[in-house]
């Protein structure tokens, strides 16, 4: 391990390590120049519908779930913490979706990581480390402050640590979280499964009871329209 345990954040994504599995965070340090924006433009249109049974089968990481287990509609979201469109959803659409559909027991939201770069993976690992209900709160905090850590010049670690501190992280806990190779490997495995089995090739990607949401996902009205057939509207 180098003197700076977060050196990997300043470099590019090693696609082979990230897609096929990595033994450690250090395996992500070889630059290939893939940016989040490029990653979102690649690939075909993915699958229009997938098996709900397959989609909900437990994966490498426990799902992050908001809502009641017996809700008639399940939305599965694949997101990257460095994705601007994902931040827009969580900042501007999710609050209304939660109030209108999740809190009323109609919908549950399953959040799954699909990191498009190593910085997104690091942020997602921090959210996982928060644990329990604090994980969702950490995700929200990271998306709300995305412009301060995801798109800045230089080292993003100080800003990430400031956010983590607000969630009660000590320096030791923060450092330990970003060195959690087991969680990183599981995240890589889950990302690969989403790509191979469900055709996820961009973020955010939403499946509503197995049906992929096409078109806009940046307004509550778009979700009103998409959810109506499943809720008898």
Low-pLDDT runs: 1-43
CATH class: Alpha Beta
Strands of the widest sheet, in order across it, are 1-3-2-4-5
Assembly type of the shown chains? single chain
Do you know the CATH topology?
A: Glutaredoxin
- How much β-strand is present in the residues? 5-15%
CATH-assigned homologous superfamily: Glutaredoxin
* N to C succession of SSEs: HHHEEHEHHHHHHEEH
Task: Assign a percent range to the helix content.
Answer: 40-55%
User: Helical segment tally?
Assistant: 11
Give the beta-strand count.
Answer: 5
Q: Compute the average pLDDT.
A: 84
Please give the CATH architecture.
Answer: 3-Layer(aba) Sandwich
How many structural domains are formed by the residues?
A: 1
| CA gyration radius, whole angstroms | 17 Å
Plain-language structure description:
This protein has 233 residues and is α+β, with helices and mostly antiparallel strands. It has a single domain (7-231), classed as Glutaredoxin (3-Layer(aba) Sandwich). The protein has helices spanning 15-20, 36-41, 52-55, 84-102, 118-130, 133-144, 146-149, 157-166, 171-178, 181-198, 220-231, and strands spanning 64-66, 73-79, 107-113, 205-208, 211-212. It has a 5-stranded mixed sheet, with helices on both faces. The radius of gyration is 17 Å and the shape is globular. Residues 1-43 have low confidence and may be disordered.
List keywords for this structure.
single chain; 233 residues; alpha+beta; Glutaredoxin; 5 strands; globular
Summarize the structure.
With 233 residues, the protein is α+β, with helices and mostly antiparallel strands.
